[in-house]
Amino acid sequence: MTSRATTAGPRERLLEAAKRLTYTRGVGVGIDALLSASNVARRSLYEHFGGKDGLIAEVLRLAAEEDEATYRRTMRAAGGNPRDRLLAVFDALAKVVARPDFRGCRYLAADLALADPDHPGHAVTREYRQRVHHLLERELAALGHPRPDLAADQLLLLIDGTLAAGATRPDSRPAASARLLAEQILDAGAA
């Protein structure tokens, strides 16, 4: 029996190239650059995704699944205390923004760059933020916070701010500052 190395098909190569290039160059990266990086014919882009907009939306959807799973793993690893689980998010963000390849929040960048309000990417980023909000809100409710929905809004704002400042002012230690503010939000619920 012989084994053959499986090579990724055109769809997977397009997704991988688009994931990398839209993060490093933004969603405005040209179709020719995407096709060149993936070594895929233009026809494959349209067959698999209907065009660049469909490819961008799928890349955002896949990245959102990965990032949501990372939030869940981070919180699980912090143990059973909801306060510890929520603060672990900011500890993890400190590591993310410190990476040399960090370029900011993929979702915020996409929302700002996609001028068409009906672009399918916007629906993906909204849904992703809603799922993260739900994760935070659930922990806040378990903590006994009197306003878990509002507090989740506040924590999500701190997360977005951390990622934005991490890209534009990395030396400002945005995750550490956000963690201190998060502690105040959590402690306000205990008062």
UniProtKB/TrEMBL annotation:
Coiled coil: none annotated. The keyword DNA-binding applies. Residues 8-67 form the HTH tetR-type domain. Pfam families: TetR_N. Keywords: DNA-binding, Transcription, Transcription regulation. GO terms for molecular function: DNA binding. InterPro entries: Homeodomain-like_sf, HTH_TetR, Tet_transcr_reg_TetR-rel_C_sf. SUPFAM superfamilies: Homeodomain-like, Tetracyclin repressor-like, C-terminal domain. The keyword DNA-binding applies. Residues 30-49 bind DNA. It comes from the Bacteria. Gene3D superfamilies: Tetracycline Repressor, domain 2. This is TetR family transcriptional regulator. It comes from Actinophytocola xanthii.
